[in-house]
Structures are given as C-alpha cells and as structure tokens.
Specification:
By secondary structure, the chain is an alpha+beta fold. The chain has one domain. Helix content is 36%, strand content 27%. The chain is built from nine helices and 13 strands. The strands form four sheets. Strands 2, 3, 5, 10 and 11 form a five-stranded antiparallel beta sheet that branches. It has a four-stranded mixed beta sheet with strand order 1-4-12-13. It has a two-stranded parallel ribbon with strand order 6-7. Strand 2 and strand 3 form a beta hairpin. Helix 4 runs antiparallel to helix 5. The longest helix has 20 residues. The radius of gyration is 20 Å and the shape is globular. The model has no long low-confidence stretch (mean pLDDT 88).
Amino acid sequence: MATSTNCILHYASKVNYLYNILERGFYPSYCKENIIAGKATKQFAVPMVSFCDIPLSQVKDHMRKYGHYAIGLNIEWAKKNGLNPVQYLEKDSPLTTGVLHLLDFVHAPWNKLLNNKDFLKFYDGPYQGALSVLRSIKNYTGPLTRNGKNLGEYKFYDEREWRYLPNIDHTDTKIDYDDFYVETEFKKLAKKHPQKPHFTDYNLPFNSTDIKYLIVSKPNNIPPLIKFLKKQTHLYENEKQFLILLTKIMTADQIKEDF
C-alpha cells in the first residue's frame, strides 16, 4: 500500500471555498504554528497554503477534520511552483531546541534591520534561507486546535503536509507583508490583516491539466459544480479539456465506500 500519492490535495470545509479556488487560484493566508521543544513553546504565524499527499485510501480521518471538498493537483505542478513537504520536529530532539534558538536569533533584529540597505544584501542569502526553514517546520505531535476547540494530542506527521510559501519581495514598497509574526505580534497581525485571504497580491494559479481530482461531498454537489466549471473558461483551452476535467470529479462518499 502506498504511503503517499502522486498529487497534493487541498481540503476545504465548504463548497464555496472550492469554488473560490477554482475561480481565483490559491491565495496564501497567515496560519498560526505552535512549536514545542521540551518544556519551551514558541507560537508564530506564517503565510502559506497547505496541502497534503495522503492517499485517498487513507484520507477519511483527514476529511473529517478538514472538510469533504478538495482539489488535487499533480506533483509536477507542486514542484514547478516551489512547494515542499513540511519538516516535522520531535519535541524532545536537539534539532527542535536548535530551531527555537534560531527563531529567537532571526526574529530579534529583523524588523529594524529591513530598513538598512546593507542588511538587505545579506537578507537575500543566509537570512532569507533561515526564514524559509522556520516557515517550513511543524511538530511531529502536539495539541490539535480546530475552530477554537482543543481536540487533544495529535500526530501531525500523519497529515503529510506540503506548503506553498510566498516569496515576499521586501524591496517593493507597494507590498506590505511580513514573513512571520511571533506571538507578541498577533494583535498587530489581526489589525493589519483582519480577513482571509491575507495575501491577495500572491496568486498561485493552475489550469485543468494540473488538476488530478475535484472532490465534493455528495453526488448532488456534482451538477452545480459542472455548471460552475462551464463558466471558468480560464481553466481550459477547448471543449476536450473541459470534458476531461469533468472526469476528474468524484465524491467523498465514493472515497469512503470504494477506497
């Protein structure tokens, strides 16, 4: 049995969220991460779009947590757009402790130094590299919170998460985004970006040839989806591509029964 699939999937809790993705592409938003190292804890928020490569035969529990609507895109699309699997950290490992120290080191000076032209030259290399690592980490296990509710200890490793992390151009004065916020800045984040999606300047597009699956909850969701797809002519170049796209539709009910 395969432990991963040859595509990555993004799950949604409402059909309208799936429609928005099909119409506009993916827009990143800030997501809060809680990293535990021994008895120490660091919480921060990073901009991302999350996917997973869990095989459909093993995805039932994931759908219960994240929703019965999804879009799956082929792995070539993921590689072309710079997506990467998350680095999972065991909370009692020396690596996790080192990552927390790196977080303290990187965050301390950066807000002030971004106004320094000499620092910006350094920022494009080692500093940006360190930020990329920090934006790609997650605990192997830890408390799971969904919709404000603590669901207890959870093995995040089972999610097989991939992330799209926008490459923010800090030299562009018209763009006002940060690579991450630490816990003490969450109020600032909420005021600055009160509503998702947060990154409307960073669209991640795709077309019908990139799509491998379109998943809806029930069979009665299929006719409205087909009607909607007829209007999304930016996704396909001709009727043949449109008809092939329709063959990629399946339901969560099918997955539960047949996989």
